């Protein structure tokens, strides 16, 4: 009986366990206003990445980075069904002037809209920008035609991530 109850407690975790190969094979196609895809790799660029989780690195992740001002917003249009990942950070980036906080998506809002959060263990580490801001990673299966306007912070937009293959 104890084993059964223990397995029931683990069921949400087991159901949430990421199937990286399947998600890489069914990655969404997206366009993002004022952001372009680049390979997710460690770099010394000031807007680059200091640490990358093994799950993202091992599946050829591509991350969308700003090419022009985003005003802290990721405007995403889904071109093909599939899995979409987002990297968000809620560290302090400035006061509330400009009323940006009213549009901010919290972890609770992401979850209420069907997004799942991945743990450091599931990711095999943390995604950390060179400004030392650790990112929270969410994923969701999105549908062609969806338009998302997402904001997590004042200046940094949520960074869309697509898996492109790998092992």
Provide structural commentary.
With 167 residues, the protein is of the alpha+beta class. The protein has one domain (19-162). It has helices spanning 2-16, 20-25, 54-57, 107-112, 120-123, and strands at residues 29-32, 35-39, 49-51, 62-66, 73-80, 82-88, 116-118, 127-129, 134-142, 147-151, 159-162. Residues 3-16 have low confidence and may be disordered. Keywords: Signal.
Give the secondary structure arrangement, pairings included.
Blueprint: H1 2-16, H2 20-25, E1 29-32, E2 35-39, E3 49-51, H3 54-57, E4 62-66, E5 73-80, E6 82-88, H4 107-112, E7 116-118, H5 120-123, E8 127-129, E9 134-142, E10 147-151, E11 159-162
Antiparallel strand pairs: 1-5, 2-4, 3-8, 4-11, 5-10, 6-9, 6-11, 7-9, 8-9
Helix content, binned percent: 10-25%
Number of domains: 1
Assign the structural class, choosing from mainly alpha, mainly beta, alpha/beta, alpha+beta, or little secondary structure: alpha+beta
Low-confidence stretches: 3-16
Name the average pLDDT.
Answer: 85
Strand content: 25-35%
**What about the largest sheet?**
8 strands, antiparallel
Radius of gyration: 16 Å
Q: What is the first-to-last residue Cα distance?
A: 39 Å
Keywords: Signal
Signal peptide: 1-17
Brief descriptors of the model:
167 residues, alpha+beta, eight-stranded antiparallel β-sheet, 5 helices, globular
Structure summary:
21% of the residues lie in helices and 34% in strands. The protein has 167 residues and is of the alpha+beta class.
């Amino acid at each position: 009986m104890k084993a059964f109850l223990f397995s029931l407690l683990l069921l949400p975790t087991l159901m949430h366990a990421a199937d990286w190969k399947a998600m890489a094979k069914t990655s969404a196609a997206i366009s993002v206003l004022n952001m372009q895809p680049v390979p997710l790799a460690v770099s010394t660029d000031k807007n680059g990445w200091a640490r990358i989780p093994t799950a993202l690195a091992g599946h050829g992740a591509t991350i969308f980075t700003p090419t022009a001002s985003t005003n802290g917003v990721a405007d995403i249009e889904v071109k093909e069904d599939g899995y979409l990942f987002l990297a968000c950070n809620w560290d302090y980036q400035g006061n509330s002037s400009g009323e940006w906080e009213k549009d901010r998506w919290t972890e609770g809002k992401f979850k209420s809209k069907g997004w799942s959060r991945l743990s450091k263990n599931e990711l095999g580490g943390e995604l950390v920008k060179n400004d030392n801001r650790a990112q929270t990673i969410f994923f969701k299966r999105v549908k062609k035609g969806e338009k998302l306007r997402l904001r997590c912070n004042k200046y940094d937009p949520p960074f869309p991530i697509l898996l492109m293959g790998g092992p």
